Amino acid sequence: MQRNRHRRFSFSVWRLPRLAGVIVVASSLLLLASDNRPDRIPSYVSWTPETIAAASAGDAFRGMLLARHCDHCHGAEGFSAVASTPNLVRMDKLAIWKQLEDFRAHKRTSRVMEPISESLSPRDVADVVAYYSKLPVFTDPQDNRSFPQSRPDPAHAGIASRLISFGDGERGIPPCQTCHGPVAYRPGVPSLATQNADYVLNQLEAFASRARANDINEPMRTIAALLTEDERHALAEYYGAGLGLQPGSSK
Amino acid sequence: MNWQKVRTLLITVLLLCLIPATRYYQIDVPLLRFLKGSRQVDPLALHLSGEFVENNLGTEQGPDGSVTVRMIAQQYLFIPHCILVPAGVPVHLRITSADAVHSLTFNGTDYAVKVLPGTISDAQLEFPHPGEYQMPCREFCGAGHYAMRSELKVVPREQFPVLRPEERGNCAAQ
Predict the structure, then answer these.
(1) Are residues A214 and A161 in the same domain?
(2) Suppose A245 and one of A76, A152, A193, B74 were both cysteines; which one would form an S-S bond, judging by CB atoms 3.0 to 4.6 Å apart?
């Protein structure tokens, strides 16, 4: 009798690990079933004080030496010869840093820039960023630069300046200058004041088609998709002609 | 009834009074926070993990047909820019801000949802009439505030697409 009870007791203890195993397997299956939708992450960058400090800690002199590898395409003075390659001159340091991090993490695709940014160490990135963000705009060009391009026709200029300074409240398009300057800047937003027309147009089209999808919380994908084809051309021409810094008029 | 019993009863009543008191004086009770689920989010990391990653935004349909809408407010956009919901169905809205204080309002209704960075705002809404409503921001949030508005499309219930659990509805999907 005693022995029997003892056996029954030990039998139930032996069942416990098996029971636990069943629970673990069942719950992990449930978790798997509920988690079959992987998160889409646009960029691993988050503008915490630590990130901003890391992106700002570069050595501009070392950056100047490293930037000799970039001259070939981005120009010795930060102005590129080909209008579809971006000018890096006077670009905000956080904006360059974010783009290089996104290329390195393959969050922004570019056949050219992904391998180049992978060859840079995190320290190299911070140094190059420090150099380009301090590079002055030389008025006596040594570069074979394509900036500024010809002025847009008055109709296009009017469309662009209205969008840049006022946006379109009816469609919910905020004014470009409230994020891209000069009215206000936000972390990681590049100034477009010295950017090439072709490059701006390419990026607006890439955002609209979501071929470029590395903007945090989708501001540019949303805005570019709301713009018409004609407005994208007008905006690109306006910025490409170097008019982006002028206070816009309602004309 | 003896004195012991009265004392026990009094202490019990006093202790029970503590529960509404914690609510009234807004005392933080970790256990309650745990039971209700935390409403804290990191406004700088919404895109990295959790409820507000970009492919979780928009309209979600539960297995019982209930509708949940998740949005992010940021200077000067509501994301997603166009929301699609069925008419006459309770809509559970969950929204948080990535930067400043915003206020999501629905023209033609008297709903207004205050949106703060760092916490999730919850609201139960219902739109009986199909149609298109503008959703402007009504809390001054910066230079582009007056252009901050998105759109709400309310469609008759039978026109609302049946969404799979991992699918999120928006105007483009219609």
Answers:
(1) yes
(2) A193
Q: First vs last Cα of chain A: how many Å apart? A: 102
Size of interface A-B (CB pairs under 8 A): 83
| Inter-chain touch A169–B147, beta carbons under 8 Å | yes
Q: Tell me if residue B109 falls in helix, strand or coil.
A: coil
Best A35, A209, A217 member to test B by mutation, with max B CBs in 10 Å, is A217
CATH number of the domain to which A62 belongs: 1.10.760.10
B45 at interface of A, judged by CB pairs closer than 8 A: yes
Residue after which a domain boundary falls, among A100, A133, A166: A133
d(CA B76, CA B117): 14
Over residues A17-53, the pLDDT tens digits come to: 677 777 766 765 665 555 456 889 999 999 999 999 9
Whole-angstrom distance, CA of residue B45 vs CA of residue A41:
10
Expressed in percent and rounded to 5, the helix, strand and coil fractions of chain A are: 55, 0, 45
Matching residue, tokens 């490409």: A240
